[in-house]
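Section 5.1 Outputs to date
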Amino acid sequence: MAAATECAKGENSMRTPKFKNYNGSELLVIFIHGFMGSPGQFDDLAETAYKKGCSVLSIVLPGHSGSGKHFVNSSLIEWETHLQNEISKYRDHYSQIYLVGHSMGGLLALNASIVKANKICGVLMLSSPMRIAFISPDSLRCKFKLLFSLREREIRKRYTLSNSIDSDLLYCLLLLKPFQQLKALMQKTEHNLSDVFTPVTMIHSKNDEMVAFESAKILYDGLSNTTRKSIALQNSSHAYYPADEREKIGSELLTMIH
């Protein structure tokens, strides 16, 4: 690859793609954000991988990091195509490529690993949905805990970091369209689970206010043709991970790439 570069300086750095090349490395870790997510949420994990000798790339999916109008008009095929294009761009330069995806990004990563030409060596999925739990009793309980948490400022900061869509009431009302794309991806992923042969690590939060915890079992049971590991976090939510559990995620990432 070209000489080391680091994109995304300045106030928009949380919303722009980031690539950091580790000179001489044969390993690349690609980070994929989720539904309405942001590459900025992976900064610490990317730095963890970089310090261990990996080049790192945090992508921005089509329709993200901008207006609500652009987001609601984005599609699953665009998200999948963009990820595939990014993998294709780098796969001839690195002998080992690993994918890390949060929420929807984990589903995109898992499906990309099925493409043999991608030669994906491992997938780490964080809070990836096979079932949604917006208004279940457990989800409402988790939302209530977040609302009145003593760590509310820290949690709010993390959720702000993980959101890339500008607030727009009109387009927020049209979220059904992209949400249908997410549902289609969930169904596609469930259908494809037995076709995955890449090692997979799944991390889910018992207090996830968005993703039903049963998603972990569905993934684990369906990924019967590969090596897989399922880890449950006790104190995290969908996009907020306290320091000790964030450190655990970093440890699992390093285990995967070495």
